[in-house]
Amino acid sequence: MKRVRKAALRRVAAAAVAGALLATAVAATTGPAQAAGQNAIVNGGFEDGLTGWFTNNGNASDGATLSPTTDAYAGSSAVLVTGRKTTGSGPMQDLSGKVQAGKTYAITARVKYENPSSPATKQFFATMHYGGSTYTNVGTVTVARGQWGLIQGTFTIPAGQSVSTARLFFETPWTSDPASAPDTHLMDFKVDDVSLVEFVPSTTIEALGKNPGEGNPLISHKFGADGNAFVHDGRVYLYMTNDTQEYKPGPTGISPTNTYASINTITVISSDDLMNWVDHGEIPVAGPSGVARYATNSWAPAMESKVVDGKEKFFLYFANSGGGSGVIVGDSPVGPWRDERGNLLITSATPGASNGKNWLFDPGVFIDDDGQGYLVFGGGGDDGTRSAENTNHPKSTRVIKLGDDMISTQGSAEVIDAPLVFEAGHLFKRDGKYYYSYSSNFGFGGPIDPNGPPTGAIAYLMADSPMGPWTPDKYKGIIFRNPGTYFGAGGNNHQSVFELGGQYYFTYHAQTLNSRITGGATQGFRSPHLAKLDFNGDGTIKEVKGDYKGVEQIRDLDPYRVIEAETIAWQQGIATRKIDGGSEEFGPQAPNLELYDIDNGDWTSLAKVDFGDGGATGVTAKVRPLAAGGKIEVRLDGRNSPVVATIPVDAPLGQWTKLSAKLDGVKGVHDVYFTYAGPAGADLFEVDSWAFDAQAKLTVTASTRCIGTSVYLAVTAVNDFDVPATVTITTPYGSKTVAGVAPGKQAYQSFNTRAGQIDAGTVTVKGTATVDGEPMSVSLDAGYGARTC
Ligand SMILES: [Ca+2]
Ligand SMILES: [Ca+2]
Ligand SMILES: [Ca+2]
Predict the structure, then answer these.
(1) C-alpha 615: how far from chain center
(2) pLDDT tens digits for range 292-337
(3) Does the predicted model carry a pTM greater than 0.85?
(4) Residue-wise DSSP of 733-770
(5) Ligand 2 centroid to 206 CA: how many Å?
(6) Which of 423, 556, 613, 688 is flagged as catalytic?
(7) What is the CA(683)–ligand 2 centre distance, in A?
(8) C-alpha 314 to ligand 3 mean position (Å)
């Protein structure tokens, strides 16, 4: 027994050292892990005497005396170990039934020894004994004599380990003859504050996943696959398979491979400039808490809107794994969402949908100019014959007409015979031509026709009708090769096409954030990318190349309003989550998110913010402080640029509050970086939104009075510019322009409303001036009350 134990201890001691190194590496790459759950240790602080503790008795020769001591690390009591017979003689607690094989735990404990004849430093171990000769050192410290040291460790109980006996104890390193040097090996020691909790690694991505200045991946704080773009009111929304649901980095910082099995929500982001992306969170689509409780999964979404019965409705289609497709209905692009159908839209019972081999997933929705909706869907189709025909023409995808309600189908689905088809069908229209694009398969065992697309690529057909017929002669080539061509990591391929501001764009996904987190390896976690999509004169498509640069920002960001803090161009180290209440920017029905897991050194940013000629005089953050001493620093054009404003996050902890800082007239277009600082190791605060204050250059007042039986509306505008200004006053009762208003002087006009009674209203005053050779303008409103004369 003793010999076996010696071997085991030496082996596990080496493992513990490796574990400690690994834990350090993890902390550097994935940030602080969260210890969750209850302390499995009873009376870990020894405040209840020796309750729960006994002397390790794993070997017949082990033995010691435990007694309470008032020399505590914390509280008023600790345990003192005396009379140790072996190096393994120390306080033990039985954890049988409290720990599980395959789970990871974090242990901490305080230990101290004081024998003046002992070495100046001594190593201590926390060790698990699983019965028999199975001992594992799970935490260690080398402590200086007379001082409390911190034993720390993280360990995963092997999946095959029996834990019917699981006991934790504290000891000193094994030696064959400890009694020959008892001051070195058998000294008395004290233990306090023992904690053992399940260890849950943080899922926050602390790595830099998107380089400042670059557009791809679109977001770097979470994943998102199979993006489907939908343009509404000048804003593009991207609906994505929520790969983040499968992202579970272990103690090594690496997640197991994405199986898609647990994905039942859809991630939504949006932008009106294609560089600053707003995180709208996740739509709970399938599963017990989903909108469509009849479904298990929500992959590969597709979105369209249509006015039905006089009201615009938003239809979000999703794949329920490979077996079918469903649809939920919303009141806006970001919900709220409801189930209007009660079951899947596409199943094997849908006329023409199934040939018994194909998948019924990857819905792609399209509405033609006449209001008729269409759904393309399907994929797979490997029949096992390994034939050329089945490989190149699996005929596994379909197109079907949708009902007027968009949640039913009409007639029978038609076969799409796209060369080497596999998945990701998408239908769009341009200049009277219809385009069916899709991902080609990776080979079904037969020879691949060289006249068709390469494997795993986005290819397309063109036709004169949404229903095709989609025959191989309509094949026009490829749009986008496999992402592996450009980014190292390949994987599947998925696309959509949208038009914004007269330009067409192409969405695809790639495992770029995944590989940046791990330093190269990928586990199937995909990120959204954008590229311009250009056409030849005959309507055929120019091949898209994948890159990190992405597309140009198409408009500057207006800072003089509420900007949700979950609007991000580039960032590092933050995470987002939904909080109660609607969005100040997107309305009470829209979800609102916050930034959290904000550590010292984390940052977020906004690209190309236009402060205008007047400039900004202040910045406000809506924050919830979590630790004292935090601050938000505002920098321009780089995260290491000089600080132009500092918002001290100095307010009661745990409460939402708005905190501001002055800005000294920041003008023109800048990238804005918010860098977060405060005590290391603490979650500093959460952020909901930002707002900037514009430099007002006019002071406007409006008032009413009676002259006879008529109401007169008087407007005064003081020129706060340092130079003469032209002032234009606009009211419901007339307008007036006054040129050359001197600095500090006012423009005044009284308007006869020619009415004895007026309702409350608003006047608008615009001032223009030339400052330092630059034209500047400001527009301000002022209200007035109702009046009866
Ligand atoms: Ca204590
Ligand atoms: Ca963080
Ligand atoms: Ca927010």
Answers:
(1) 32
(2) 999 999 999 999 999 999 999 999 999 999 999 999 999 999 999 9
(3) no
(4) TEEEEEEEEPTT-EEEEEEE---SEE--EEEEEEEEEE
(5) 6
(6) 423
(7) 8
(8) 23
